[in-house]
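Deliverable D2.4 — example input (structure tokens):
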């Protein structure tokens, strides 16, 4: 059994990775969380082959101890690590991760595919997206999936938020850089997405939108209006 350290295990991405990994008896998920007693952390105990571990990501010694203790355990050293290296620019941690408009289940399934066959993905950067749509196509797909128009935000409000929320600039820059990289790909703009789809079936925008109205806990992502303007949670 291979030990996989899942950083931010109680966040949406970490949680879906654990769900995908624990479908196999080949993996033990070490679910890293700051608060072992939190309700979200306790829910992870319902999955098989999950062990809760705690460490402060800002404390190198705690992380070193975590790896050393794992190496001494019956399952042996940590074989792989899942970590989301970037979060939306709201000054939030992995455990307060913002809903990102992407099918997080795809992240879990793709992570499982990488751990199952790491050599196939070595030295590769892959965009995980089910399709590429124009704004008009997005709006039409949303109506088909939900029966109503896609919610929108006035442009002046977005401009105001971007002027005040400096941490949000990094997120926008990442989108621009990703778009520029795809446009410079000699294989074509959609080549990376086509490669991703060759590994497994990814969720289309319309399929994702069908769950748009799915009930969730009140403000489960901890987003506040003040946080949007200031870059805090």
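Example output (designed residues):
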């Amino acid at each position: 059994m291979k030990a996989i350290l899942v950083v931010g295990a109680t966040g949406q991405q970490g949680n879906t990775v654990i769900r995908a990994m624990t479908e196999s008896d080949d993996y033990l998920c070490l679910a890293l969380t700051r608060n072992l007693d939190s309700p979200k952390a306790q829910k992870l105990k319902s999955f098989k082959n999950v062990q809760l571990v705690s460490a402060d990501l800002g404390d190198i010694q705690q992380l070193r101890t975590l790896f050393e203790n794992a190496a001494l355990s019956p399952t042996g050293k940590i074989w792989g690590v899942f970590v989301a290296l970037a979060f939306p620019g709201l000054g939030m941690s992995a455990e307060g991760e913002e809903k990102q408009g992407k099918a997080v289940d795809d992240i879990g399934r793709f992570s499982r595919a990488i751990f199952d066959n790491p050599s196939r993905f070595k030295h590769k950067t892959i965009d995980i997206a089910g399709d590429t749509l124009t704004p008009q196509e997005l709006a039409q797909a949303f109506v088909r999936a939900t029966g109503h128009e896609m919610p929108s935000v006035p442009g002046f409000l977005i401009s105001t938020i971007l002027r005040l929320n400096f941490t949000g600039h990094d997120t926008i820059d990442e989108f621009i850089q990703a778009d520029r990289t795809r446009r410079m790909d000699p294989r074509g703009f959609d080549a990376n997405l086509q490669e991703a789809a060759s590994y497994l079936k990814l969720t289309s925008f319309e399929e994702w939108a069908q769950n748009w109205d799915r009930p969730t806990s009140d403000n489960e992502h901890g987003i506040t209006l003040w946080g949007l303007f200031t870059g805090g949670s």
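Residues 87-101 have pLDDT under 50 and may be disordered.
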